[in-house]
Specification:
The protein has 25 helices and 27 strands. By secondary structure, the chain is an alpha/beta fold. Strands 1, 2, 3, 4, 5, 6 and 7 form a 7-stranded mixed β-sheet that branches. Strands 10-9-17-18-8-19 form a 6-stranded parallel β-sheet. Helix 5 crosses helix 6, helix 11 crosses helix 18 and helix 12 crosses helix 13. The chain is globular and about 95 Å long. Keywords: ATP-binding, Helicase, Hydrolase, Nucleotide-binding.
């Protein structure tokens, strides 16, 4: 049996500094309350006139609103440092606070000084020069304005490392899961802190096993990027984007990010972002390759679908599309030209002419410049620049001339670009072996593969639709023709920073497009190649991503924090069968043995009584957030209904529209990925459900078995899968 869910310890602590720390906490709370009272007193926020007074009052009110939530928990740690022969103690919290009249200031966790709390380094060079030395690191457990525990992590007077960091971590990990993200600001480990604070302006790929804290670190890195100390790399929350693999997780992330002070971030899925950029929000997006992989038993057809999907997401397709568009536009320009009379101030009207030869030269320059807002906008600017130069237009005449040329230039652009919409042009390219061959990048075999349709047996929606494997190709057409990035009104600009969760499921082509849509170096990818459930659209290795994101650094989190030793060892055994860096070190946290429930194959009610019993056992062990993980969504729907006959009421989560609110849920492995639960029950954990001979199936089993924090059960009618038996 696992330990019951722990709570904060009572107010008893034998630490010799407990009373003095409690007194300092009281002083800090009082200082914060005084500051909030000052900000909320409108009579004190007076300016030279009424308008200035209103602005000052509003700003003060915003400051008060930001500080108020932190009064109950002002800080979580302290640093005793020695700089220039003088010792001082710095307190580290989630929100910086400056006490102008006393010693109760708090430095923010995301500041450079705050970073010292998490690292193993014992010295640093302050900005003002000199040499700083860490004398002590201390963890302070505070809740409801009350100090509960003092734990020294490092104390040079007691011999250095006290083992307190691991002690605090284990206390936190023993707590039960909630429907939110685990708060790690207080317990960031040195390797996590290093990854989170990797120098801004460098694309970062954070590779880590299930439970290593990738998603949490990515979100905190985004928050860190918004700090003023980032200088020219500072990101605006409203100009950032987080891409989550499905809408269940996107809703979950959108709830969490405001707690980190970055509530304005756009949170969506790759499909949601793509269809929004294409202006096709009502387009139904399918994943017929996944459907085939989950349902078809013909290995030849599955292999063909896998290979075709991988090729559609190959980074080379970016240049295949570019070459195709170059040929299309050049053909459309033949015989085109402009001859327009333009009225000018204080001068006789003049004729603006441009020939198709000149237009071809302009198009070549536009392709070479590769503008963010696309070839169409770039081509218009080139024509307009030619007109202004040819007619020798003065500054005060410029607007009038461009207004006169607007209609004929728009008509010309329509003749050249109008037929190349992203959906039709991507499909036109795939249907033309000649166009696919034009770049010389694809072999005859690859071109033939793109011309096949291994998904012909998978139903398609009756209304307009696109497959996820086609979307990157459509986005490539959009990027080149209409541009790609963040719309700010009518202006297209690059995102300040983009975070990709489950990054092993993004194609190299999509990475190349996101690289175009984001400031150079401002992309953070979080993934685990061992968990690649959608490998047919993901990279084969991180080197393939680095090839399209120059300077990208791969940082590996070598430790998993989610699960007990028993659960971690089981997951590592499964992952080792597909030989991808399965050397994962777990936190040495002991827990319940993995529970196994089996029944004869002819059992009258199948596995239903077993699952119901497992739920009761998990609840008896003190767990409330429990997941029953199934292979497919249809299995989850069926189980949710049938389990009611066994006095078990589980909320089904079977589509991306469902929201995870905690409690007992039943959901397919595809939607469980990215979530964690106090207890998890893997249904039908056998070779009939997870084919032992197929790597993809073993990946699914790994993901299913790695969702639990404290308690894991495996259920099967007949023998359990040999990897978990």
């Amino acid at each position: 049996m696992s330990a019951p869910v722990s709570t904060r310890p009572p107010v008893h602590d034998s630490h010799p500094d407990f009373e003095s720390e409690a007194a300092h906490l009281t002083g800090t709370v009082d200082a914060m309350l005084r500051q909030i009272d000052f900000w909320e007193d409108r009579d004190r926020q007076m300016g030279a006139d009424l308008e200035t007074s209103i602005i000052l009052g509003d700003e003060a009110g915003e400051h008060a609103a930001m500080l108020s939530p932190h009064v109950h928990h002002p800080y979580f740690g302290s640093l005793k440092v020695r700089v220039g022969g003088r010792e001082q103690t710095l307190y580290v919290g989630k929100h910086a606070f400056r006490d102008l009249k006393g010693p109760h200031s708090v430095v923010g966790w995301d500041s450079e000084v705050g970073s010292l709390f998490y690292s193993d380094a014992l010295g640093w060079i302050p900005r003002r020069g000199g040499q700083g030395v860490i004398k002590r690191r201390r963890q302070l457990d505070i809740a409801a304005k009350t100090l509960h525990r003092v734990t020294d992590l490092y104390d040079d007077e007691r011999g250095g490392d006290t083992g307190g960091r691991e002690e605090v971590l284990l206390r936190r990990l023993e707590e039960g899961s909630t429907a939110g993200m685990r708060d790690v600001v207080e317990t960031l480990q040195p390797e996590q802190n290093t990854a989170m604070r990797y120098p801004a302006g460098t694309p970062v790929i954070i590779q880590g096993a299930a439970g290593s804290g990738k998603t949490t670190i990515g979100f905190h890195r985004l928050s860190w990027m918004t700090h003023a100390e980032r200088g020219p790399h500072q990101a605006r929350a409203e100009a950032c984007m987080v891409l989550m693999p499905n809408r269940v997780l996107a809703t979950y992330a959108a709830r969490i990010l405001p707690e980190l002070g970055i509530g304005g971030v756009t949170v969506t899925t790759p499909e949601g972002w793509a269809t929004g950029l294409l202006g096709l929000e009502k387009l139904e997006v399918t994943d017929r390759t996944l459907t085939l992989l989950l349902t078809d038993h013909d290995n030849t057809r599955r292999a063909l679908a896998w290979r075709r999907a991988k090729l559609l997401g190959d980074a080379r397709m970016l240049d295949v599309v570019r070459t195709h568009l170059w040929n299309r536009y050049n053909a459309a320009l033949r015989g085109q030209g402009l001859r327009e009379e333009v009225a000018l101030r204080h001068r006789d009207p003049q004729i603006f002419t441009v020939t198709d030869t000149q237009l071809h030269a302009m198009l070549r320059d536009v392709f070479a410049a590769d503008p963010l807002d696309g070839y169409r906008a770039g081509f218009r600017r080139a024509i307009e620049a030619q007109a202004l130069s040819q007619l020798n237009v003065t500054d005060d005449e410029e607007a009038g001339v461009l207004r006169q040329l607007s209609v004929p230039v728009t008509a010309l652009l329509g003749r050249v670009f109008a037929s190349t919409t992203p959906v039709t042009e991507a499909r036109r390219l795939l249907a033309s072996p000649e166009s696919l061959a034009a770049s010389g990048l694809l072999s005859e075999r690859e071109i033939a593969l793109l011309g096949t349709d291994p998904l012909s047996g998978i139903p398609t929606p009756r209304r307009a639709h696109a497959d996820v494997t086609e979307l990157p190709l459509m986005l490539a057409v959009q990027a080149f023709t209409g541009g790609i990035g963040r719309l700010d009104g009518r202006t297209l600009e690059p995102f300040d920073h983009v975070v990709l969760d489950e990054a092993q499921d993004y194609s190299p082509l999509l990475y190349a497009l996101l690289g175009r849509a984001t400031r150079p170096g401002h992309l953070t990818a979080l993934g685990d190649l061992n968990q690649g459930m959608h490998g047919y659209k993901g990279p084969s290795n991180w080197e393939a991503v680095g090839a399209v994101l120059p300077g990208a650094e791969v940082l590996t989190l070598g430790r998993t924090y989610r699960s007990t030793r028993q659960i971690t060892e089981l997951g590592a055994r499964i992952a080792a069968t597909y030989n991808r860096a399965a050397q994962v070190q777990g936190v040495d946290r002991d827990g319940a043995e993995v529970q196994r429930y089996t029944a004869p194959e002819d059992a009258p009610y199948g596995e239903l009584p077993l699952i119901a019993q497992a739920v009761k056992d998990a609840q008896a062990a003190g767990h409330t957030n429990i997941a029953i993980v199934t292979r497919r969504a249809v299995d989850a729907d069926r189980l949710a209904e049938q389990l009611r006959d066994f006095d078990t009421d589980a909320q089904p989560i079977t589509t991306q529209e469902h929201r995870f609110k905690g409690g007992l849920v039943v959901l397919p492995v595809s939607l469980a990925k990215g979530l964690e639960f106090s207890a998890a029950i893997v249904s039908s954990a056998n070779v009939q459900t997870y084919d032992e001979s197929t790597e993809y199936e073993r990946r699914l089993l790994y993901v299913s078995a790695s969702r639990a924090l404290h308690w894991l059960a495996l259920v099967s009618v007949g023998e359990l899968h040999p990897l978990v038996a």
